[in-house]
Amino acid sequence: MMGKxxxxxxxxxxxxxxxxxxxxxxxxxxxxxxxxxEQLEKSRLQEQKAMLENETLREQIEELRQSFxxxxxxxxxxxxxxxxxxxxxxxxxxxxxxxxxSDVYHKRKVPKIESDSMDFGSQMASx
Length: 127
Known about the structure:
Keywords: Coiled coil. The chain is mainly alpha-helical. Helices cover 71% and strands 0% of the residues.
């Protein structure tokens, strides 16, 4: 019955039909509300799950950062130790000598100085 066959119905039958339709509409509305509430609850659970997952990922990122910083610091310290050791093993061409130089133990080559500068030096000494 789609509302087209209402001609032969009495007033009482029409009231009864209206009551059935109203009850049907209320049932549809109730079911629709129930479905919406279920969807809302499901969405809230998904949100909580996503928030927990985000927090776990943030903690993992922080752990990785700390680990990376620790490794970087360790590498820097290792390189510093290696550089210090290489100096102790004689691989360094830097030397330090204290005291006066002695011609007996160490002869240095005196760089050639142009005659003009020698004359200037002697002039300065005579003044």
